[in-house]
Amino acid sequence: LGFDTACFVGGFTREYDDVTTSELAKTLLYTTTGNGLTMMSNRLSWFYDLHGPSVSLDTACSSSLVALHLACQTIKASTSDSRQAIVGGVNLILVPDQMTTMNPLHFLSPDCQCYSFDDRANGYTRGEGIGIM
C-alpha cells in the first residue's frame, strides 16, 4: 500500500552514534546499522511505508535547509511520482568533544552570540533541536 511521499532529513554531527558505541561490550546488536546519519530518512520511510525518494544528508550547518530545497525540487519536478514530502533536520549536543576541539580554533563565539554577516561577528554558537514538517 504505502504512500508516494518523499523523505529528506538533514543532520550534522554523529554524537548519538559516538555515545551508543563508546563501550563496545555494551553496544547493542543493531546499533551500527541503525544509528548512523545515513539511516535518518530511511527509518522514517520504512516506518510510515513511504515509497518516494528517501535521502539523508549532511551539509554541515545547512543540512535542514538543503533537505527542504531538495524536497521542493522533487515535488516541483514533473517527472517525480512524489507530490508531497516529509522534511526534517536534527542536531543533538550530547558530548563536549566537538566544542572542546573547536574552541582553540576560535570557531565558537566567546560571548555566546552569533552575529552572522555583521562586523561584530566573532564565531558562531551551536544549537540543538529536531524539526519535521
TrEMBL record:
Keywords: Oxidoreductase, Transferase
InterPro entries for this protein: Ketoacyl_synth_AS, Ketoacyl_synth_N, PKS_Beta-ketoAc_synthase_dom, PKS_NRPS_Biosynth_Enz, Thiolase-like
GO molecular function: 3-oxoacyl-[acyl-carrier-protein] synthase activity; fatty acid synthase activity; oxidoreductase activity
Record bears the keyword Oxidoreductase: yes
A Pfam family matched in the record: ketoacyl-synt
SMART domains linked: PKS_KS (SM00825)
A single GO BP: secondary metabolite biosynthetic process
All copies of domain Ketosynthase family 3 (KS3), residue ranges: 1-133
Domain of life: Eukaryota
Keyword Transferase assigned: yes
Protein name, as recorded: Putative polyketide synthase 7
Origin species: Cladonia rangiferina
Species lineage: Eukaryota, Fungi, Dikarya, Ascomycota, Pezizomycotina
